[in-house]
Write the structure tokens for this entry.
Amino acid sequence: MVDKPRGKDVRSQGFALTFSLILVIILMLIGFAVIKVAQGTAVQSILFQNESIAMSNAEAAYENAIYWMSGNPDLLLDMDISGTSGTITFPNSTADYKVEFYGFVGYSVGRSPHQHS
């Protein structure tokens, strides 16, 4: 008996190897895409957290200014030319604030609120 050449089996084994290689490459690309999406989501989460902290700091500074103003009924007489400023400290950050009313009420810097033209 004469053995037949196995050319057909060799070709099918080559196809299986090529198919599995393409499948592995496609799965790797999908994995990289998922990693990039997760990384982008993490970055956006950090940016949102920083924005939330900044908004909380601004709100706290606003509340501190309202509290300070409630204790000073005549602000223009109590404030000097430079206004008032301060720092609020939080566990992860700080907020600096400065309140100036002279420009708001029509006085220029260097003039007293008592000097009228």
In short: The mean pLDDT is 76. The two ends are 124 Å apart (CA to CA). Strands lie at 84-89, 94-99. The longest helix spans residues 7-70.
